[in-house]
Structures
1.
Amino acid sequence: MEMLSMQWVLAVDIITAAIAIGFLLFITIPQPARTTLAVKSNVIQDMVQSFRYLWSRRGLTILLVLVAILGLFTTPPFILMPVLVTNNWPGTYSSWAG
């Protein structure tokens, strides 16, 4: 890709996207019959029911805890990255790009 000009890179991108969309055109998505709820759902009740389901499945609970821990430890470094870059490498890109 680095040997191609920007126009060819974009052309390859568009062609591969068209191929992917072409494959998706042959997939049928089943449409289940619609049902109407006799009782209006309550958001709090839905949340409680969702958490009960989640806690009853040990694998989902572990996955949720791991994702929460991962987010807790990876979000601050990504947020503070611009501060690190500007403090350790002052100046603009053009001043050190050569």
2.
Amino acid sequence: MSPTAKRKLPPSTLVLLVRHGATPSTGQVLPGRAPGLHLADAGREQAARLGERLAAWAPSDGARPRIAAIYASPLERTRETAAPLAAALGLRVRVARGLIECDFGEWTGEALKQLVKRPEWTTVQRYPSGFRFPGGESFVGMQARMVEAMADLRAGHPGETVVAVSHADPIKAVVADAVGTHLDLFQRIVISPCSVTAINYGPGGPMVLAVNSTGALSELAPS
């Protein structure tokens, strides 16, 4: 290739980030990476509706790019959330460790009503970039891990649409990175159970198309 020849830029990848459905401890406990936490009945209903919504958004008639792959963190609640959509589209759920929940270390399993009483909680909310969970992961490390996971998805699926089922804080961290917001402001982002956050990763950088969407996705397209 001559020095003046133009290189073809890789096509964009649309990543649909999904938070897992509600569990029996959602909003009450910091479950972290502890195994054995499954979806509650309400969470299973949310996952079923999510499957219907995304399957309808990606029809097989070529009206929009079909969903090429479905990924989930290794934890049960994310894989259970992904299952109805995978069944509807005839795909398997691929486990991607980079999508896993933040490692809360010694705080894993603690009740939120007790954690908010700790002096460190102010740091978690106002200065997360300077906090590491005792015996666990830092928010900075979590964000870097998730950004790398997005890069891996783009590299593996150029020009395609993929679903990535993860957890609230990791998704918030990805959104903050995508819009160029400092990590210390990421707590202002809301990611609800079974919501969809759509980010298009293209040659010019990420473009956020939707955040915390629980409604129709018919207009997902860069303007």
3.
Amino acid sequence: MLRQVDKIEILTLMDNYVDVLLGNTDVVRRAAHAGGGEIFKDTLVGEHGLSLLVTVYNGTKKHTVLFDTG
């Protein structure tokens, strides 16, 4: 049974964004390119999953859940 609440707040912690043509930085080491902007076929290119911090408010009560698809 669903209950009515006062407010729901959803904070996106990590989005599923991948740009496989970006190069390395001081912080991130990315997959090597095969040449011509292509990536080797055996390279895993997924970098992130979706992670949401969901907070539900009802009166003076607050409940928080981390929804992480990892």
